[in-house]
Amino acid sequence: MSAEENVKTVQEGYAAFGRGDVPAILELLTDDIEWIEPGPPDVIPVAGTYRGKDEVARFFATLGEHLDIHKFEPHEFIAQGDHVVVLISSEATVKRTGRKITDHLAHLWTFEGGKLAHFETFQDTAALVAAHS
């Protein structure tokens, strides 16, 4: 696929996330997807490496259990070859602590055969740890 087609797929993924359509997101993934969320998993419930669609579905379930997302705005898409980097502004509240997180993050999407094969988030994990503690 072209870089432009990969960006379109990424945008479809964010649109599905916005409407809470996890099955549509899972359709964009390879069966052996590797999904990486940074941070200490003993503090940040969604942190860790998820492999395969079932584990990624578990990631989204855990995300919904622990965060109220108020704003999630992908605002820049940078594509080259099989890679798309997305810059995002977000705001959320940790349900357990009531603490708000305002963050700027980057997502790295890597495609194989038109499907997402690797996903990684880059963000301020210190702020996440503080909000979850």
Task: Calculate Rg over CA atoms.
Answer: 14 Å
- First-last Cα distance: 42 Å
How big a fraction of the residues is strand? over 45%
Tally of DSSP β-strands:
6
Mass-distribution shape: globular
The overall pLDDT average reads 95
As a percent range, the share of helical residues equals 25-40%
Task: List the helices and strands in order.
Answer: HHEEHEEEEH
Question: Could you characterize what this model shows?
Answer:
With 133 residues, this protein is of the alpha+beta class. The protein has a single domain, classed as Nuclear Transport Factor 2, Chain: A, CATH 3.10.450. It contains 4 helices and 6 strands. The protein has a 6-stranded mixed β-sheet with strand order 2-1-6-5-4-3. The longest helix has 16 residues. The protein is globular. The protein starts with a helix and ends with a helix.
Structural topology:
Blueprint: H1 3-18, H2 22-26, E1 29-37, E2 48-51, H3 53-66, E3 67-80, E4 83-94, E5 100-112, E6 115-122, H4 125-132
Parallel strand pairs: 1-6
Antiparallel strand pairs: 1-2, 3-4, 4-5, 5-6
Keywords:
133 residues; alpha+beta; Nuclear Transport Factor 2, Chain: A; six-stranded mixed β-sheet; 4 helices; globular
